[in-house]
Amino acid sequence: MAAAQAKPVAAKPLTEAQKAAIAAARAANPAVRPHAAQAAAKPGGKKSMVVKTQWADGVEEAGDGKPVRCDFCGTKVPFGAAQCPDCGTAVKAPALVEEKPNWFRRVGAALVIILALVAAWRWGEYYLSVRPKRGADGKPAVEGVTILSQKLDKQPGTALMFVRGTVTNHSDVPYFGVKVECDLLDKNGVSLGKFSDTRMVLDPHKLFPFNIALLDPDAVRYTNLTVSAQR
Questions:
Q1: Is 174 helix (H, G, I), strand (E, B) or coil?
Q2: Which domain holds residue 157?
Q3: pLDDT of residue 210
Q4: CB-based burial of residue 174 (10 Å sphere; 0-12 exposed, 13-18 middle, 19+ buried)?
């Protein structure tokens, strides 16, 4: 008689109790996985080849806040995790590359700020120089030297006459070579020449009481009283 051939017996499905036992064993030792057991069962003397996996674009993703791949099984490991969630292999934390400061950009920004401040300061000086100054009453302030008062005085008992008055310096700087001058006229209105009085320096906000002697006996009056000075 021919030897009876054994018929293949279909594997019975696992019961719920068996499934629970397998799940409990895996939970107690998460580092043991089927692929890990197969790798351990390989003949001794041969080291398993470790292939580093890459992302789809061919560049290994690492860095601050990004997940990395497990060196053993290739599973994506969340950033900050110490072990692979699949095989339990320790994961080396990616080295954080400290960003170097961009000195060129900082120096350029500092130069731009300095130039802007200098330009604003120069513009302020120019604006103040051309803006009309105003006095305490709100009216435009008077600048330079001006004649405040003038009159013609006769010397009692003589034919001499004097043109007297006051000149003031309204500015904050001294004026030099202040000269008050007028034309002397006779009774017919003919000019007899120019007469003047001078002060070398007139300090800021000071007065110059001028006194012009009219020495010509034919002089009757004066005209064109002017003042000039150098700043």
A1: coil
A2: 145-230
A3: 92
A4: middle
